[in-house]
Amino acid sequence: MADKKVEAITSMEEDFAQWYTDVVVKADLTGYTSVKGFMVLKPAGYAIWELIQKQLDARFKETGVENVYLPMLIPEGLLQKEKDHVEGFAPEVAWVTHGGLNELQEKLCVRPTSETLFCDFYQKDITSYRDLPKVYNQWCSVVRWEKETRPFLRSREFLWQEGHTAHATAEEAEERTIQMLNVYADFCEQILAIPVVKGQKTEKEKFAGAVATYTIEALMHDGKALQSGTSHNFGDGFAQAFGVQYADKDNQLKYVHQTSWGVTTRLIGAIIMVHGDDNGLKLPPMVAPTQVMIVPIQQKKEGVLDKAEELRERLAKVARVKVDATDKSPGFKFAECEMRGVPLRVEIGPRDIENNQCVLVRRDNGEKITVSLDELETKVEELLKTIQKDMLETARAHRDSHTYEARNWEEFVDTINNRPGFIKAMWCGETECEENIKAETGASTRCMPFEQEKLSDVCVCCGKPAKKMVYFGRAY
């Protein structure tokens, strides 16, 4: 019985996609619904999102962000105002055509993103330089009618936050765009224990309607890249399309400069694919809904459950802790604990009580430590910090050992086909080369990293003079 839950997981090496689905289902993170591509976020999955939301929101507010909420429906005419933007989203838009039994005079789109709504709002709300900057964010869901869906990574409705800011100058807008990208990068590393590469998207890959898109890219266990957060500088393009102007100190009418930035529940998919193993989830302590699970051994014996409860009350001061007092066998409870990614397990039985000790088991590396009950709180607090740090270091080591360099086309093709991961290579800056690389190998430009290196003088694809070093990879 002990390994029953684990046996139901396909091995990562055998079939990574199936392993991912198995973990999501067995760890009880999501459920399927009657509408294809829409998922239920179950308590175990939603609790992770709540911790992400709470900690990210606090970081936003430290930078002066205020939360707002805008409607979920956008009139067709409003969406059409920014041509590039609407073209970028047209294939994925869901439309509302009826209100009750009556056909609407104008179709309404269910928001795939809210740039147009914010522009409409700002156009009414901003009149003078004194109204700037506006640094707003909303936590909401959006709908994009994706063809292929996968829990967390790509669903037709997903939860996210979208920041939308308006500034007096181009410099302020650029500064905010980079500031928010750095907030995301620090959050991924410090809270999710996921190392990222920061950089700019190419012209081909940038957000529809943006002047520049910046991204954080993470590497999953299978060597595929995952775009984990984006920050866009819109310049004054949207402002011109929507007439968002302000009277400056010299009483001249000027257009505002805008930014937009967001992360989604896709981050939960990243946590699964960066840290998980064949026994299930591994949650970094900072986003683990239950950081410590106390498993009583021989719990029917007198005093065992009472002791477990006493330890829970003590540990509640330093961690999110639960007791598994169900009537399942200890072996099953251990497997379930591992499957759900609980960072630390406390085992306590009659003999432990007699010896004034318990056994702590780390989820990240399986290490068992016998600890005196007198120093339990101190040791648990220390271990949770150590696990968080070690998980980041393990993920960074994996990323670095799966980041390769290619100086010519043969090296590039050989690497992408035989050694999954990031490939650093020089690029001429032409979209045609980017498209050829994608068509030939399935690898896309992930970003032009802020930290540039000169690997050679020529483009890896066409041999013309190189302009940028780029991270390439196959991606989710």
Describe the fold and architecture.
This protein starts with a helix and ends with a strand. It has helices at residues 4-7, 16-26, 43-62, 76-79, 83-89, 115-125, 170-190, 237-242, 266-275, 304-315, 330-339, 350-354, 376-401, 409-418, 431-441, and strands at residues 30-32, 39-41, 66-67, 73-75, 94-99, 102-110, 134-143, 157-167, 197-200, 212-219, 225-235, 245-247, 253-255, 257-264, 292-296, 321-323, 344-348, 357-362, 368-372, 403-405, 422-427, 444-449, 468-473. An 11-stranded mixed beta sheet has the order 3-7-8-14-11-10-9-22-23-21-20, with helices on both faces. A 5-stranded mixed beta sheet has the order 16-15-17-18-19, with helices on both faces. A 3-stranded antiparallel beta sheet has the order 4-6-5. Helix 3 crosses helix 7 (170-190). The protein is globular. It is 35% helix and 27% strand. It is built from 15 helices and 23 strands. A hairpin with a 5-residue loop joins strand 12 (245-247) and strand 13 (253-255). It has 476 residues and is of the alpha+beta class.
Q: Notable features of this structure?
A:
476 residues; alpha+beta; 11-stranded mixed β-sheet; 5-stranded mixed β-sheet; 23 strands; globular
Brief account:
It contains 15 helices and 23 strands. Helix 3 (43-62) packs across helix 7 (170-190). It has helices spanning 4-7, 16-26, 43-62, 76-79, 83-89, 115-125, 170-190, 237-242, 266-275, 304-315, 330-339, 350-354, 376-401, 409-418, 431-441; strands spanning 30-32, 39-41, 66-67, 73-75, 94-99, 102-110, 134-143, 157-167, 197-200, 212-219, 225-235, 245-247, 253-255, 257-264, 292-296, 321-323, 344-348, 357-362, 368-372, 403-405, 422-427, 444-449, 468-473.
